[in-house]
Amino acid sequence: MLKLEEVHERVMRVLGIETSCDETGIAIYDSDAGLLADALYSQVEIHQKYGGVVPELASRDHIRKTLPLIKEVMDKAGCSKGDIDGLAYTAGPGLAGALLVGASIGRALGMTWNIPTLGVHHMEGHLLAPLLEENGPSFPFVALLVSGGHTQLVEVEAIGVYRLIGESLDDAAGEAFDKVAKMLGLPYPGGPHIARLAESGEPGRFTFPRPMTNRPGLDFSFSGLKTFTLNSIHQLLEEGMSTEELDQQSKADIAHAFQEAVVDTMRIKCQRALKQTGMNTLVIAGGVSANQRLREVLGLMAEAEGFEIRYPQLQYCTDNGAMIAYAGCQRLLAGQHDDLSILAKPRWGLESLPALQEI
Ligand code: KG4
Ligand code: ZN
Protein backbone atom coordinates (compact mmCIF):
# COMPACT_ATOMS: atom_id res chain seq x y z
CA MET A 1 0.00 0.00 0.00
CA LEU A 2 1.28 3.49 -0.86
CA LYS A 3 1.87 6.24 1.67
CA LEU A 4 -0.48 9.25 1.53
CA GLU A 5 2.15 11.58 -0.03
CA GLU A 6 2.86 9.06 -2.82
CA VAL A 7 -0.88 8.75 -3.50
CA HIS A 8 -1.25 12.48 -4.07
CA GLU A 9 1.88 12.80 -6.22
CA ARG A 10 0.59 10.56 -8.99
CA VAL A 11 -1.87 11.52 -11.72
CA MET A 12 -4.09 8.90 -13.23
CA ARG A 13 -6.73 8.76 -15.96
CA VAL A 14 -9.28 6.00 -15.42
CA LEU A 15 -12.00 4.57 -17.64
CA GLY A 16 -15.06 3.52 -15.60
CA ILE A 17 -17.66 0.93 -16.62
CA GLU A 18 -20.99 0.50 -14.82
CA THR A 19 -23.23 -2.42 -15.82
CA SER A 20 -24.68 -3.68 -12.52
CA CYS A 21 -28.37 -3.31 -13.39
CA ASP A 22 -30.30 -1.63 -16.20
CA GLU A 23 -27.96 1.23 -17.10
CA THR A 24 -24.76 1.10 -19.12
CA GLY A 25 -22.60 3.95 -17.79
CA ILE A 26 -19.14 4.85 -19.07
CA ALA A 27 -16.85 7.70 -17.98
CA ILE A 28 -13.25 8.87 -17.94
CA TYR A 29 -12.00 10.47 -14.73
CA ASP A 30 -8.65 12.20 -14.48
CA SER A 31 -7.24 12.63 -10.95
CA ASP A 32 -5.87 16.02 -11.92
CA ALA A 33 -8.46 17.46 -14.34
CA GLY A 34 -11.60 15.75 -12.97
CA LEU A 35 -14.33 14.19 -15.09
CA LEU A 36 -13.34 14.35 -18.78
CA ALA A 37 -16.42 12.77 -20.35
CA ASP A 38 -19.26 10.40 -19.58
CA ALA A 39 -22.24 8.78 -21.26
CA LEU A 40 -25.20 6.77 -20.09
CA TYR A 41 -27.51 4.40 -21.88
CA SER A 42 -30.68 3.48 -20.00
CA GLN A 43 -32.51 0.20 -20.70
CA VAL A 44 -35.75 1.51 -19.18
CA GLU A 45 -37.74 1.05 -22.38
CA ILE A 46 -36.72 -2.59 -22.65
CA HIS A 47 -37.85 -3.45 -19.13
CA GLN A 48 -40.85 -1.15 -18.82
CA LYS A 49 -43.31 -3.53 -20.44
CA TYR A 50 -42.40 -6.20 -17.85
CA GLY A 51 -42.85 -3.79 -14.93
CA GLY A 52 -39.28 -4.36 -13.70
CA VAL A 53 -35.77 -5.38 -14.73
CA VAL A 54 -35.49 -8.72 -16.60
CA PRO A 55 -31.92 -9.84 -15.78
CA GLU A 56 -31.25 -11.81 -18.97
CA LEU A 57 -32.41 -8.94 -21.18
CA ALA A 58 -30.24 -6.57 -19.16
CA SER A 59 -27.08 -8.68 -19.70
CA ARG A 60 -27.70 -8.98 -23.43
CA ASP A 61 -28.22 -5.27 -23.84
CA HIS A 62 -25.05 -4.44 -21.88
CA ILE A 63 -23.17 -6.68 -24.35
CA ARG A 64 -24.56 -4.62 -27.23
CA LYS A 65 -23.99 -1.19 -25.68
CA THR A 66 -20.78 -1.25 -23.62
CA LEU A 67 -18.11 -1.16 -26.36
CA PRO A 68 -19.83 1.45 -28.57
CA LEU A 69 -20.38 3.62 -25.48
CA ILE A 70 -16.70 3.29 -24.50
CA LYS A 71 -15.76 4.44 -27.99
CA GLU A 72 -18.17 7.39 -27.74
CA VAL A 73 -16.72 8.50 -24.38
CA MET A 74 -13.11 8.10 -25.55
CA ASP A 75 -13.93 10.28 -28.58
CA LYS A 76 -15.73 12.86 -26.43
CA ALA A 77 -12.72 13.10 -24.10
CA GLY A 78 -10.30 13.17 -27.03
CA CYS A 79 -8.51 10.12 -25.60
CA SER A 80 -6.99 7.17 -27.37
CA LYS A 81 -6.00 3.92 -25.67
CA GLY A 82 -2.51 5.17 -24.73
CA ASP A 83 -4.10 7.97 -22.68
CA ILE A 84 -5.85 5.64 -20.25
CA ASP A 85 -3.83 4.56 -17.19
CA GLY A 86 -6.32 2.30 -15.46
CA LEU A 87 -9.72 0.72 -15.80
CA ALA A 88 -12.47 0.35 -13.19
CA TYR A 89 -15.66 -1.66 -13.56
CA THR A 90 -18.50 -2.43 -11.16
CA ALA A 91 -17.84 -5.89 -9.71
CA GLY A 92 -20.92 -5.96 -7.45
CA PRO A 93 -23.39 -5.89 -5.86
CA GLY A 94 -25.89 -6.25 -8.69
CA LEU A 95 -27.22 -8.72 -11.25
CA ALA A 96 -24.68 -11.51 -11.84
CA GLY A 97 -24.98 -11.62 -15.65
CA ALA A 98 -24.98 -7.83 -16.02
CA LEU A 99 -21.91 -7.51 -13.75
CA LEU A 100 -20.05 -10.16 -15.73
CA VAL A 101 -20.44 -8.16 -18.94
CA GLY A 102 -18.71 -5.09 -17.46
CA ALA A 103 -16.14 -7.24 -15.65
CA SER A 104 -15.23 -9.25 -18.76
CA ILE A 105 -15.02 -6.24 -21.07
CA GLY A 106 -13.08 -4.26 -18.46
CA ARG A 107 -10.60 -7.04 -17.79
CA ALA A 108 -10.15 -7.82 -21.49
CA LEU A 109 -9.45 -4.16 -22.32
CA GLY A 110 -7.07 -3.92 -19.37
CA MET A 111 -5.07 -6.89 -20.64
CA THR A 112 -5.07 -5.60 -24.23
CA TRP A 113 -4.04 -2.08 -23.23
CA ASN A 114 -1.65 -3.41 -20.59
CA ILE A 115 -3.06 -1.27 -17.78
CA PRO A 116 -4.22 -2.22 -14.25
CA THR A 117 -7.92 -2.92 -13.67
CA LEU A 118 -10.03 -2.90 -10.53
CA GLY A 119 -13.49 -4.22 -9.63
CA VAL A 120 -15.35 -1.44 -7.80
CA HIS A 121 -18.11 -1.78 -5.20
CA HIS A 122 -21.27 -0.23 -6.66
CA MET A 123 -22.39 1.30 -3.34
CA GLU A 124 -18.94 2.79 -2.75
CA GLY A 125 -19.40 4.40 -6.16
CA HIS A 126 -22.70 5.96 -5.02
CA LEU A 127 -21.20 6.96 -1.68
CA LEU A 128 -18.28 8.79 -3.27
CA ALA A 129 -20.29 10.41 -6.10
CA PRO A 130 -20.52 13.82 -4.30
CA LEU A 131 -16.70 13.90 -4.41
CA LEU A 132 -16.88 14.26 -8.19
CA GLU A 133 -17.53 17.94 -7.42
CA GLU A 134 -14.60 20.28 -7.10
CA ASN A 135 -15.57 21.16 -3.54
CA GLY A 136 -16.77 17.75 -2.45
CA PRO A 137 -17.56 16.97 1.20
CA SER A 138 -14.64 16.29 3.50
CA PHE A 139 -14.31 13.24 5.71
CA PRO A 140 -15.66 12.09 8.08
CA PHE A 141 -19.38 12.07 7.29
CA VAL A 142 -22.53 10.02 7.63
CA ALA A 143 -23.88 8.68 4.33
CA LEU A 144 -27.44 7.69 3.61
CA LEU A 145 -27.36 5.38 0.59
CA VAL A 146 -30.80 5.01 -0.94
CA SER A 147 -31.06 3.06 -4.18
CA GLY A 148 -33.25 0.42 -5.79
CA GLY A 149 -31.39 -2.39 -4.03
CA HIS A 150 -30.06 -0.82 -0.81
CA THR A 151 -30.97 1.50 2.03
CA GLN A 152 -27.98 1.96 4.30
CA LEU A 153 -26.65 4.44 6.83
CA VAL A 154 -22.87 4.37 6.83
CA GLU A 155 -20.35 6.06 9.09
CA VAL A 156 -17.58 7.08 6.68
CA GLU A 157 -14.18 7.77 8.19
CA ALA A 158 -12.22 7.78 4.89
CA ILE A 159 -12.35 5.96 1.55
CA GLY A 160 -12.71 2.28 2.45
CA VAL A 161 -13.24 2.87 6.17
CA TYR A 162 -16.94 2.23 6.45
CA ARG A 163 -19.12 1.22 9.37
CA LEU A 164 -22.66 0.15 8.57
CA ILE A 165 -24.82 1.70 11.30
CA GLY A 166 -28.28 1.05 9.85
CA GLU A 167 -29.99 -0.66 6.93
CA SER A 168 -33.35 -1.80 5.66
CA LEU A 169 -34.49 -5.11 7.08
CA ASP A 170 -36.71 -5.74 4.05
CA ASP A 171 -37.37 -3.61 0.92
CA ALA A 172 -34.93 -0.90 -0.12
CA ALA A 173 -36.40 2.62 -0.35
CA GLY A 174 -36.25 2.67 -4.16
CA GLU A 175 -37.81 -0.79 -4.30
CA ALA A 176 -40.71 0.47 -2.15
CA PHE A 177 -41.19 3.43 -4.53
CA ASP A 178 -41.18 1.01 -7.49
CA LYS A 179 -43.64 -1.44 -5.92
CA VAL A 180 -46.08 1.23 -4.76
CA ALA A 181 -45.91 2.82 -8.22
CA LYS A 182 -46.87 -0.53 -9.74
CA MET A 183 -49.90 -0.75 -7.42
CA LEU A 184 -50.97 2.69 -8.60
CA GLY A 185 -50.56 1.68 -12.24
CA LEU A 186 -47.46 3.82 -12.83
CA PRO A 187 -44.57 2.72 -15.08
CA TYR A 188 -41.16 1.37 -13.99
CA PRO A 189 -39.01 2.79 -12.43
CA GLY A 190 -41.63 4.20 -10.13
CA GLY A 191 -39.68 6.71 -8.02
CA PRO A 192 -39.83 9.72 -10.35
CA HIS A 193 -43.48 8.95 -11.27
CA ILE A 194 -44.57 8.79 -7.62
CA ALA A 195 -42.70 12.04 -6.96
CA ARG A 196 -44.50 13.78 -9.83
CA LEU A 197 -47.94 12.44 -8.89
CA ALA A 198 -47.41 13.32 -5.21
CA GLU A 199 -47.10 16.99 -6.11
CA SER A 200 -50.86 17.16 -6.76
CA GLY A 201 -51.72 15.02 -3.72
CA GLU A 202 -53.89 16.42 -0.96
CA PRO A 203 -52.11 16.29 2.39
CA GLY A 204 -53.97 14.60 5.23
CA ARG A 205 -56.43 12.44 3.30
CA PHE A 206 -54.30 9.36 4.04
CA THR A 207 -51.75 9.04 6.80
CA PHE A 208 -49.09 6.36 6.47
CA PRO A 209 -46.98 5.13 9.42
CA ARG A 210 -43.29 6.04 9.91
CA PRO A 211 -41.94 2.48 10.31
CA MET A 212 -39.48 1.70 13.11
CA THR A 213 -39.21 5.30 14.29
CA ASN A 214 -40.87 4.79 17.67
CA ARG A 215 -38.07 2.55 18.90
CA PRO A 216 -34.34 3.22 19.12
CA GLY A 217 -31.97 2.21 16.32
CA LEU A 218 -31.07 3.13 12.78
CA ASP A 219 -32.58 0.28 10.80
CA PHE A 220 -35.40 0.77 8.31
CA SER A 221 -38.38 -1.28 7.17
CA PHE A 222 -40.37 -0.22 4.13
CA SER A 223 -42.37 -3.33 3.24
CA GLY A 224 -45.25 -2.34 5.57
CA LEU A 225 -45.85 0.76 3.45
CA LYS A 226 -46.76 -1.50 0.52
CA THR A 227 -49.46 -3.15 2.65
CA PHE A 228 -50.65 0.29 3.73
CA THR A 229 -50.91 1.35 0.09
CA LEU A 230 -52.88 -1.77 -0.75
CA ASN A 231 -55.20 -1.19 2.22
CA SER A 232 -55.77 2.42 1.15
CA ILE A 233 -56.67 1.26 -2.37
CA HIS A 234 -59.04 -1.38 -0.93
CA GLN A 235 -60.65 1.23 1.29
CA LEU A 236 -61.50 3.28 -1.78
CA LEU A 237 -62.79 0.21 -3.62
CA GLU A 238 -65.02 -0.64 -0.66
CA GLU A 239 -66.40 2.87 -0.77
CA GLY A 240 -67.79 1.88 -4.16
CA MET A 241 -65.05 2.90 -6.59
CA SER A 242 -64.08 0.36 -9.24
CA THR A 243 -60.41 -0.34 -9.98
CA GLU A 244 -60.75 1.53 -13.28
CA GLU A 245 -62.42 4.42 -11.51
CA LEU A 246 -59.65 4.85 -8.97
CA ASP A 247 -59.35 8.45 -9.92
CA GLN A 248 -56.20 10.45 -10.46
CA GLN A 249 -56.76 12.55 -7.34
CA SER A 250 -57.04 9.49 -5.08
CA LYS A 251 -53.88 8.04 -6.59
CA ALA A 252 -52.10 11.36 -6.08
CA ASP A 253 -53.28 11.48 -2.45
CA ILE A 254 -51.89 7.97 -1.82
CA ALA A 255 -48.61 8.79 -3.60
CA HIS A 256 -48.30 11.92 -1.46
CA ALA A 257 -48.93 10.07 1.81
CA PHE A 258 -46.47 7.32 0.85
CA GLN A 259 -43.71 9.74 -0.13
CA GLU A 260 -44.20 11.79 3.05
CA ALA A 261 -43.87 8.62 5.14
CA VAL A 262 -40.62 7.53 3.42
CA VAL A 263 -39.10 11.01 3.54
CA ASP A 264 -40.09 11.64 7.15
CA THR A 265 -38.72 8.24 8.22
CA MET A 266 -35.40 9.06 6.56
CA ARG A 267 -35.31 12.48 8.21
CA ILE A 268 -35.78 10.92 11.65
CA LYS A 269 -33.10 8.25 11.07
CA CYS A 270 -30.57 10.71 9.62
CA GLN A 271 -31.08 13.03 12.56
CA ARG A 272 -30.48 10.11 14.91
CA ALA A 273 -27.40 8.93 13.00
CA LEU A 274 -25.80 12.39 13.14
CA LYS A 275 -26.51 12.65 16.85
CA GLN A 276 -25.20 9.15 17.55
CA THR A 277 -21.94 9.62 15.61
CA GLY A 278 -21.40 13.26 16.59
CA MET A 279 -20.78 14.15 12.93
CA ASN A 280 -22.13 17.23 11.21
CA THR A 281 -21.96 16.32 7.51
CA LEU A 282 -24.58 14.18 5.86
CA VAL A 283 -24.10 12.77 2.35
CA ILE A 284 -27.14 11.41 0.52
CA ALA A 285 -26.57 9.31 -2.59
CA GLY A 286 -28.20 6.64 -4.75
CA GLY A 287 -31.25 6.89 -7.03
CA VAL A 288 -33.72 8.04 -4.36
CA SER A 289 -31.44 10.98 -3.47
CA ALA A 290 -32.78 12.59 -6.67
CA ASN A 291 -36.12 12.98 -4.86
CA GLN A 292 -36.89 16.70 -4.48
CA ARG A 293 -39.19 16.32 -1.48
CA LEU A 294 -36.45 14.39 0.36
CA ARG A 295 -34.01 17.20 -0.42
CA GLU A 296 -36.48 19.83 0.74
CA VAL A 297 -37.27 18.13 4.07
CA LEU A 298 -33.65 17.25 4.86
CA GLY A 299 -32.56 20.75 3.82
CA LEU A 300 -34.95 22.30 6.36
CA MET A 301 -33.64 20.01 9.08
CA ALA A 302 -30.02 20.81 8.19
CA GLU A 303 -30.77 24.52 8.39
CA ALA A 304 -32.54 24.20 11.72
CA GLU A 305 -29.86 22.03 13.29
CA GLY A 306 -26.78 23.53 11.67
CA PHE A 307 -25.31 20.62 9.79
CA GLU A 308 -24.10 20.33 6.24
CA ILE A 309 -25.84 18.18 3.67
CA ARG A 310 -24.28 17.11 0.38
CA TYR A 311 -25.67 15.35 -2.70
CA PRO A 312 -24.17 14.24 -5.98
CA GLN A 313 -25.24 16.26 -9.02
CA LEU A 314 -28.67 15.02 -10.15
CA GLN A 315 -27.33 12.99 -13.08
CA TYR A 316 -24.91 11.18 -10.73
CA CYS A 317 -27.57 10.22 -8.14
CA THR A 318 -28.81 7.30 -10.22
CA ASP A 319 -26.45 4.70 -11.70
CA ASN A 320 -23.64 6.14 -13.83
CA GLY A 321 -20.10 5.47 -14.99
CA ALA A 322 -18.58 8.61 -13.45
CA MET A 323 -18.90 7.38 -9.86
CA ILE A 324 -17.21 4.08 -10.78
CA ALA A 325 -14.37 5.85 -12.62
CA TYR A 326 -13.91 8.14 -9.58
CA ALA A 327 -13.93 5.37 -6.92
CA GLY A 328 -11.69 3.17 -9.10
CA CYS A 329 -9.27 6.03 -9.69
CA GLN A 330 -8.78 6.63 -5.95
CA ARG A 331 -8.05 2.96 -5.31
CA LEU A 332 -5.84 2.47 -8.38
CA LEU A 333 -3.86 5.55 -7.30
CA ALA A 334 -3.30 3.85 -3.94
CA GLY A 335 -1.83 0.86 -5.78
CA GLN A 336 -4.82 -1.47 -5.48
CA HIS A 337 -5.68 -3.52 -8.56
CA ASP A 338 -7.09 -6.88 -9.64
CA ASP A 339 -5.13 -10.10 -9.64
CA LEU A 340 -5.62 -12.52 -12.52
CA SER A 341 -8.95 -14.02 -11.41
CA ILE A 342 -12.18 -12.52 -12.71
CA LEU A 343 -14.84 -12.03 -10.06
CA ALA A 344 -18.35 -10.60 -10.08
CA LYS A 345 -19.97 -10.39 -6.65
CA PRO A 346 -23.77 -10.17 -6.80
CA ARG A 347 -23.70 -9.85 -2.98
CA TRP A 348 -20.88 -7.83 -1.44
CA GLY A 349 -20.65 -6.16 1.97
CA LEU A 350 -19.46 -2.54 1.95
CA GLU A 351 -17.62 -3.05 5.24
CA SER A 352 -15.37 -5.74 3.73
CA LEU A 353 -13.58 -3.20 1.47
CA PRO A 354 -9.92 -2.38 2.20
CA ALA A 355 -8.99 1.14 3.31
CA LEU A 356 -7.33 3.40 0.77
CA GLN A 357 -4.33 3.99 3.00
CA GLU A 358 -3.50 3.38 6.62
CA ILE A 359 -5.08 5.99 8.89
O1 KG4 B 1 -29.12 3.98 -7.64
P1 KG4 B 1 -30.09 3.56 -8.69
O2 KG4 B 1 -30.05 4.25 -10.02
O3 KG4 B 1 -29.97 2.04 -8.99
C1 KG4 B 1 -29.66 1.07 -8.03
O4 KG4 B 1 -28.47 0.95 -7.66
O5 KG4 B 1 -30.64 0.46 -7.56
O6 KG4 B 1 -31.54 3.72 -8.02
C2 KG4 B 1 -32.70 3.41 -8.73
C3 KG4 B 1 -33.89 3.65 -7.80
C4 KG4 B 1 -35.20 3.17 -8.38
O7 KG4 B 1 -35.87 2.38 -7.42
C5 KG4 B 1 -35.95 4.47 -8.67
O8 KG4 B 1 -37.35 4.35 -8.57
C6 KG4 B 1 -35.40 5.38 -7.60
O9 KG4 B 1 -34.02 5.05 -7.52
N1 KG4 B 1 -35.55 6.81 -7.94
C7 KG4 B 1 -36.31 7.67 -7.24
C8 KG4 B 1 -36.23 8.93 -7.90
N2 KG4 B 1 -35.41 8.78 -8.99
C9 KG4 B 1 -35.00 7.47 -8.98
N3 KG4 B 1 -37.05 7.50 -6.12
C10 KG4 B 1 -37.72 8.57 -5.65
N4 KG4 B 1 -37.72 9.78 -6.23
C11 KG4 B 1 -36.98 10.01 -7.36
N5 KG4 B 1 -36.98 11.22 -7.92
ZN1 ZN C 1 -27.09 2.13 -7.96
Explain what the structure shows.
The protein is an alpha/beta fold and 359 residues long. The chain has 2 domains: 4-130 and 317-358, Nucleotidyltransferase, domain 5, CATH 3.30.420; 139-311, Nucleotidyltransferase, domain 5. It contains 11 helices and 10 strands. The protein has helices spanning 4-9, 44-48, 55-77, 96-113, 122-128, 173-183, 190-198, 223-238, 248-277, 292-305, 321-333; strands spanning 13-18, 23-30, 34-42, 86-92, 117-121, 141-146, 151-158, 161-167, 281-285, 308-310. The strands form 2 sheets. A 5-stranded mixed sheet has the order 3-2-1-4-5, sandwiched between helices. Strands 8-7-6-9-10 form a 5-stranded mixed sheet, sandwiched between helices. Strand 2 (23-30) and strand 3 form a beta hairpin. Helix 6 crosses helix 7. The chain is globular. The structure holds 5'-O-[(R)-(carboxyoxy)(hydroxy)phosphoryl]adenosine and zinc ion. Residues 21, 147-149, 174, 177-178, 189-192, 195, 286-288, 290-291, 318-319 line the site of 5'-O-[(R)-(carboxyoxy)(hydroxy)phosphoryl]adenosine.
Distance between the termini: 12 Å
Identify the CATH class of the largest domain. Alpha Beta
Biggest sheet: strand arrangement: 3-2-1-4-5
**Count of distinct structural domains:** 2
Mean pLDDT: 94
User: Helix count, per DSSP?
Assistant: 11
**Helix proportion range:** 40-55%
Shape: globular
| Ligands (ions, cofactors included) | 5'-O-[(R)-(carboxyoxy)(hydroxy)phosphoryl]adenosine, zinc ion
Strand percent estimate: 15-25%
Order of helices and strands, N to C? Answer: HEEEHHEHEHEEEHHHHEHEH
CATH architecture of the largest domain: 2-Layer Sandwich
| Rounded Rg | 21 Å
In the CATH hierarchy, what is the superfamily of the largest domain?
ATPase, nucleotide binding domain
